[in-house]
Design a protein that fits this description.
The protein is mainly alpha-helical. It has 4 helices and 4 strands. Helix 1 packs antiparallel against helix 4.
Length: about 190
């Protein structure tokens, strides 16, 4: 196959070898890499095995560890995974609420708060024929734990529903504005 374009001017931007050509000869003279130590020209040790050379710092060396950073965007939150995680977290919070109420009731009972306050209330609300309001029977441990358990169950349902609804609302708003941007850094 012959080239029918005629004589073409040589390409001016590249001075190296073109494909299929031999590279230009290396410059005359030996290559000497940069030296890390400034010492005697021979490079050999001087008195007592010490070279007496002063180490020069490397020019391209890093003195601090490199921290990689990535800028990411949360474009979508999966409502199903948000619902599962919020359900488990709200169950844990409900259990903590019931345990905290039981411990608080036991501490207050051991300190005698219910008997003191109950005596004061029964004196204030009592009459000659009745003893008045009995706070200790009204705030018994089973009744307090039942009330706290009902509140914890309602909390679980509400928190799970609100978190799932929040994921749907986030996905809608992220479609308009792009989502939340995060900058993550990796420590070495």
């Amino acid at each position: 196959m012959t080239d029918t374009r005629g004589q073409q001017p040589p390409y001016q931007g590249y001075n190296g070898a073109l494909p299929g050509e031999r590279p230009a000869a290396p410059p005359a003279g030996a290559y000497h890499p940069p030296r890390a130590y400034d010492g005697p020209q021979g490079g050999g040790p001087t008195q007592g095995g010490q070279s007496g050379a002063v180490r020069r710092p490397r020019t391209g060396a890093r003195t601090t560890p490199r921290t990689r950073k990535a800028r990411l965007r949360v474009a979508k939150a999966d409502p199903w995974s948000v619902m599962k995680v919020s359900f488990l977290l709200s169950i844990a919070l409900g259990i903590c609420t019931v345990v905290a109420a039981a411990v608080l009731w036991m501490v207050m009972d051991a300190m005698g708060v219910f008997s003191t306050v109950g005596g004061t209330i029964s004196e204030a609300t009592g009459s000659n024929e009745s003893n008045g309001f009995d706070l200790q029977s009204f705030l018994s441990l089973p009744r307090v734990l039942m009330f706290t358990s009902v509140i914890a169950v309602i909390d679980v349902v509400l928190m799970t529903a609100l978190a799932t609804l929040g994921a749907f609302i986030y996905n809608l708003s992220a479609g308009f504005v792009g989502g939340v941007e995060l900058t993550l850094a990796e420590d070495e």
